[in-house]
Please model this.
Amino acid sequence: MSDGPALHRVIPAWTAGATGKGVTVAIVDTGIDPANPEFAGRISAASADVAGNRGITPEDDHGTQIALIAAAARNGSGILGIAFDATIQALRIDAPGTCAQTAGCKFTDDAIAAGVNRAVDAGARVINLSIGGSNINATLRSAIARAASAGVVVVVAAGNDGDSTDPAVNKNEPDPFASSTATAGNGNVIIAGSVDSSGTISAFANRAGSFANVYLNALGEDVCCVYQNGQIRITNRNGSQFVTVVSGTSFSTPQIVGAVALLAQAFPNLTGQQIVDLLLRTARDGGAAGTDPIYGRGTLDIANAFAPQGTMTLAGSTALVPLGDTMVVTSGAMGDAGTKGTLGAVILDGYSRAYAVDFARQLRDAVVQPRLSNALAGQTRTLAAGNDRFALGFTVDGRGGIAALAPLRLGRDDAEQARVLAASVTARLAPGRQVAFGFRQGADGLAAQLSGARSPAFFIAGAPGDDLGFVTGERTAVALRQMLGGFGLTLSGERGQALTGPERHVGELRLRRENEPMERFGLAVDRRFGEIDAALGASWLREDRTVLGARFHDALGRGGADSAFVDARVGWSVRPDVRLGASWRGGATMPRGGGAIVGGRLLSQALAVDLEKLAVFAKGDRLAIRIAQPLRVESGGVRLNLPVDYDYATLSPTFASSTYALTPSGRELIGELAWRGELWGGDAAASVFYRKDPGHFASLPDDKGVAVKWGRGVLTSFPSLLGEALDSGPGFHRKPPRSFGQRADPLAHRLGMRG
Model:
C-alpha cells in the first residue's frame, strides 16, 4: 500500500463497503499494461487507442502508474489503489512514436477530446487527465463540456511548474491546460495539486491561484511504486534494496479519481457536480484558514466526504434529525432501558445520501435521583394555621424566603409530612364533605389528607401513592371528599409538568432540561372495617409530549401518552401501638401516535409493605420499617415505524415497525428502618437504609447509609383563626408561636408536621 490511502483516510469508506465496484474510471493517457495482475479482470472492453491502432499496451509506464494509484487490486501483494474494485477504461492518446523519443510523449487536443468522448460514451463516471500544456482548443472544450453535461467528473493535474525559474511560467496559477479545462467543465472539474505525506504542498506543484475554489490537493510526492513485469520493481544497490517512487501532480490526480469512484458507487444518486462539491467542501484545510491561493480548498479527506453533510432528515419525511441530538430521554421508571437494544433507522443528509443509524446510541437514561440528599437538603421551616373548618399548611425557607417544596411524604398525623412539605389549603364545606387545594403537591397527597390515611414517614423509601415514575415540576392539585354511608369517595385532579432529563441539541450546543405539561384525574373509595382500613382508586394521566416521563425527539414524534393507574392500600392496626400496612400501584401506559411513534404499551407497578411500632423508646416516638419498589416498567415499550432501508433506484425508503423495549434490567428495592421522636428538646429522626439497583440500574452499586436529622423550632403552629395568623405580616414565622407543639385544635392537629 502507498501512503495515499492513509493520508486521505480512505479506510472508513472501505469499511463501509465502498470499493469502486461497478464504477468505470477512464485513464486518458499513454495506455496501461494489460498483463499487470493488479488489473486482472477489470480492464473495460471499451478501452482503446484513440490516437492510432497500437492497442493499449504502452511504450512508457506513465498511464500504468496512474491506473495503479487509482485502482490497483486488493490482492495481498503490491500496492493498493483507492478504488481497488473499479473498472479501468484505458484510452491511449500518445501520438505514435513520441513516447520513445527523448522529448517524451506528445498529445494532441483532438486525441484527448476523442478519449474524453469515448469515456462518456462508455459510461465512465470519472476521467483522469494527468496532462499539461497550453490552453485547450475548441474541440477539447466541447468534449469537456459534453462530459460535464453527462455528469462525468473530470480530474486534471495542476502542473509541475511550482519550482520553475522560468520567468515566463506563472507558477502561482494552475497550468493553462488545467485552468482552461476547469473553465470548460461547468462545475464538474477538479484541479489536482500535490502535497507530501505530511500534507505540505509540494514545491513542484503549481499553486491554486485564481482557481482556488476548484483546486484540491492529494499525495503526489514520493508515491509508491513503479512496477516491472507485474511486480514492484526492486533495485539492489550496495547490498541494499530500493523501490522506485514517483512524484508529480500526475500522480496526485488518480488519488482524487479513486475517491470519486468510491462516492459514485456508495451513493449512486449523486450527480457529478455533487461529488465535486463534496470533495471540495470536506477537504482538510491547509495553509491559511479557508480557501486560499496556495492550497485552494485543502487536501483530499475521503472519510469526511463519506460522513453525513448538511441537514439530516428521517428518510421518507421532512423531520429533521441533527446528528448528535438526543433522540430519547428515558424516565426513572425505565431505569437502564436505554442501555439495551437497538433502534435502527435510515436518515438522509443534505446530498440525499442514505445512512443507517442506531438511535439507541443517541439515547439518554434518566438521572438517578439522590434520594438521601433530597430528603435532607435545605433549611426549611414549616407553618400551619387554621380552625375547625379551614386550615393552611406550607413550608418556608429557613432563611426567610419561600422554600422549594419537597415531594409528599405521608405521616401518621393525617399525612404529617405532606402538610409541611407541600403547601395545601383544606376546608370543611359541610358535615362529611371536605375540599383541599395543593401547590407543588400531587392529588394523591391531598386525597390521603382528606381520608385521614396513616402511613409512616421515611427518608428514602416512598410509598406507591403519588409515584408517577418520573420527576415532576410545579403541580397544582384539588381533591373533594364526600362520605357516603361508611364509605369515603374522593375525586381529585392535578396539573403539572413532567421534568425530563437533560438532552443535547447540536444547534444549541448545550444540554437542557424540559418541562412538559401533564394532567391527572382520579377517583378513590375508602372504608374502615374495625381495625382495618382500605382504599381502592383509579386515575388517568395525560401527558402532552412525554411517555411516562420519557421524552422523544421531534423527528420521532411527540404525541404524548395516556396512562391508567389502579391503586390499592390496606392498613391493619394489629394493636393500638402496632400497625401493618401495604400499598400497590399498577399502571398501563399507551403512547399516542404521532410521527414515527405508532403505538405501544408499557405496564408498570410500584409496591410497599411497612410495619410501625409506637412508643418504642419513649412516649410519642415511633419506629417503622418499609420494603418498597418504586414504580418500574415491568414490560412493553414504544412501537415505531421507521425507515430501515433505502433504494437509490427509486429514491424511496422501506419502512418497518418495531417495538423499542423500555423495561430496565435492574430492579430497585429499598429497605429502610426509620425512627422519629423528641430528643434533647427538639424533633429528631434517624434512618438506616439499603437501596438495591438504584434507579433500576443493574450496573450501579447498591446504595446504603445512615441518615440523622435534628432540629428545634421546625414546626410553627397557629391553632387560632387563619386571619390572625396572616395578620402577623411578613416574617411572622420567626415570632414565638402561641402554642408551639400544642395539639389543642383538632384540625390543626391534623396539620401538625415535622420536617
Summary: Confidence is low (pLDDT under 50) at residues 397-421, 714-755. The CA atoms of residues 126 and 153 lie 5 Å apart. The first strand starts at residue 24 and ends at 29.
